[in-house]
Amino acid sequence: MTQDHNHDHGSGHGPAHQQGSSPDHGHHHGPARNQGHDHTHMDFAQMLPLLVAEAELFTPAYTEAAEWLRERRPDPGLIVDAGSGPGVISCLLAEKFPGARVVAVDGVEPLLAAARARAERLGVADRFSTVEAELSDGVGDLEFPADLLWASRSLHHVGDQRAALAGFVRSLAPGGTLALLEGGLPTRFLPRDTGIGRPGLESRIDAVHDEWFTRMRAELPGAVTETEDWPALLTAVGLRHTATRTFLLDLPAPLSDEARAFVVTVLTRRRDGLAEGLDPQDLATLDRLLDPDDKASVHHRPDAFVLTAMTVYVGVKPE
What we know:
Layout: H1 48-57, H2 59-72, E1 78-82, H3 88-96, E2 101-106, H4 109-122, E3 128-132, E4 146-152, H5 161-170, E5 172-181, E6 185-188, H6 201-218, H7 230-236, E7 240-251, H8 257-273, H9 280-289, E8 306-316
Parallel strand pairs: 1-2, 1-4, 2-3, 4-5
Antiparallel strand pairs: 5-8, 6-8, 7-8
Helix pairs in contact: 1-8, 2-3
């Protein structure tokens, strides 16, 4: 439960979204999501391969988070993955909580279809189901209240995050647990000085991405500005904030082929989606970093890595 400052999919969805912008919002969005997308022009169905690749790559951190949640909530009867994307984390939760039913909730049916196919493939389909719902409206109709509700970088795609959280709380059983993955740190792929262009490229990309993310949030339907104090928001909707923990994903150089392909994909999306905000020299550096014929590119460099940190906030509904 690692990928959205990681605003993203996902495996949710951590991984970006709009118009070719970075899949992880530039940070790792993580797996990413779905709700309310016309506004941002994010085509999450088109992002399916990236969302799956990111969530699978980030599985070590998601696994650590799931095991931590299992210590806190060992035997939930119903788990809901709110903003599930293609179901990579949903299926991981089904594996880590073998006594639980798992419901994947998302607003994009092609992603839910992928989640159902994954559950079938992994042998958990008998206790796995999906609900198509926009998170701005809650998590749809459940057979019974959730004992554990997991929301990974999906909340920031909803205009009114407080109202969405209140909807999550309504779906929780008394004593139920909400685990919210938001924030963390930007994902890093490269040394500060790569030997080409000005040092500090990724920090400058982050700054442009943060501006984009602010605009994306402002354009969401019903957008409400909130201070991103997640424990305070959990408390505001009636939960008792009981824990916060950050999980590290550290894939050092040299990278596997899968991890290297992910780095190429993310940097390509950032280059395309954030081009207007980047200066010409940084764009030229990115073009070299993405040129498969250039030995200094991320296709070939031995020093590329994946390093990020994802923060989970836990709130419990009063009995």
